[in-house]
Amino acid sequence: MAKAFQKIYTQITAITKATCSLKAEGVGNDELAMVNGKLAQVVKILGDEVTLQVFQGTEGIPTNAEVVFLGKSPSLKVSDQLAGRFFNAYGDPIDGGPAVEGKEVEIGGPSVNPVRRKQPSELIATGIAGIDLNNTLVSGQKIPFFADPDQPYNQVMANVALRAEADKIILGGMGLTNDDYLYFKNVFSNAGVLDHIVSFVNTTENPPVERLLIPDMALTAAEYFAVEKHEKVLVLLTDMTLYADALAIVSNRMDQIPSKDSMPGSLYSDLAKIYEKAVQFPEEIGGGSITIIAVTTLSGGDITHAIPDNTGYITEGQLYLRRDSEIGKVIVDPFRSLSRLKQLVAGKKTREDHPQVMNAAVRLYADAANAKTKKENGFDLTDYDLRCLDFARDYSREILAIDVNINTVQMLDIAWALFGKYFKPEEVNIKAALVEKYWPKA
Fold first, then answer.
1. What is the DSSP letter of 102?
2. What are the beta bridge partners of residue 322?
3. Domain spans in the chain, listed from the N-terminal domain onward
4. Which of 151, 169, 241, 397 shows the smallest number of beta carbons within 10 Å?
5. Mean pLDDT of all residues in the chain?
6. How confident is the model at residue 5 (pLDDT cuts 50, 70, 90)?
7. DSSP 8-state symbol, 227
């Protein structure tokens, strides 16, 4: 019901499947409105012509529908009561629990001023050895998983949520199937970790446009725990491709000229405003942090598509999932994956031998790939080639596979064990002092 003094409009000038337009005054960008009982948000103001995106779609809305502007942007009530709960795109509970009491905060605010940031220097251990060994993550980093739609990326995200060394995990699920939603819910509940996980979920049964609210809801919750509670927060967003598709739905309905791959021309800035929320705060203002890991699904493995292409310019590396036919498991691909900040913590926040072990293992894995090519082309293999192939098979199974759950010390010990099993110290090309200290004793 409209409050006293709220302006009510009843003349819509244009309607598309996702938006409607009307003449109105005194309206702000991102302001919420009710259109014929459906929640909508201002997305464009041109003079007195206002365009609203209607989250549930415009079906059934007549041109004389009642439009009431609410005088505020989308918001979330933040408090410690968020922990352990599941919410929809509007921040309403969907787990049967009570409404959250707390301070109401508008979502989608600006990112942190660069002068208030600290260079990331804290380790974020995910518990997945294929990430922690070769592509170590740093608090305050932003990095995507690039994965084909048929790969188990949601399983990986759930595993990261269970194992990551963070105070709070914030999950933002966009376009999840009901099976995926229940999978996350059951995994978190059964593992007994719900008390430090907050989840915002949009499923395939919900309107696609609602997905546009999920990242901002998740990051508003993350900012509360990082800024107010000085906690180390890890934000998991899946799937950013579906988020970008929702952006395209709205922009196309507004007759904006599409850019590459039918994406809106604002795609870069739309993605950047999300990823740039990643931050490491200095100790003098609490030392909290927000780290973002996001899934970007690829269409036919096309890395040049506008979504992964723009993402790559914004983020600090990428993680690739690939099925290894040799072991029949999905691995974190050591060749295509990259964490541009790993040198800030590898060997500093992890054991001294980490950088040398990482480099040696990837080099030997590359030698195995060359040996495989020789074999496929009918060339004879040397004894070294055969040992590299055996090493690569064990390395994939015991380190790179996404189901390997070990800490950073264990992964380094396993790598040394594999070096000792297949090679001589001089073949591994690691500093003599480290070989003397860590090479497996016969």
1. S
2. 331
3. 8-69, 75-344, 354-438
4. 397
5. 91
6. low
7. I
